[in-house]
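Possible regression after last week's pipeline update?

I re-ran a chain I had predicted before the update to compare outputs. Posting the input and the new output here so someone can diff against the archived version. Not blocking, just want to make sure nothing changed silently.
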Amino acid sequence: MASKLDLMFTLTNEDISKESIYIHYLNKAELAIKQYCNIEAIDESLNPVVVDLAIYFYKNRDLEGVRQATQGSRSQTLEAGIPTSIKTCLPLPKLRLM
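New output (post-update):
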């Protein structure tokens, strides 16, 4: 986990005081990727993708549950779940047979 955490600090230019918050979003990103891909463990080669998703979750933490926001004349629509740009970096989801 330390290498993902170090990468997250480097990419966001934040100080070490947010470590526990970053760990929370890294765990959330790992869980989201495991559920999306139907896998038990994430390969180390996907660490940069996990960090990207954690940063996405962190930066959009105040907009969770919001699909569209309007501020004055500016309007934005948010993607639900994992953004398409991150999904393209993930392996295809595995099928589970019951």
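Follow-up from reviewer: compared with the archived run. The chain has a mean pLDDT of 80. Marking as no regression found.
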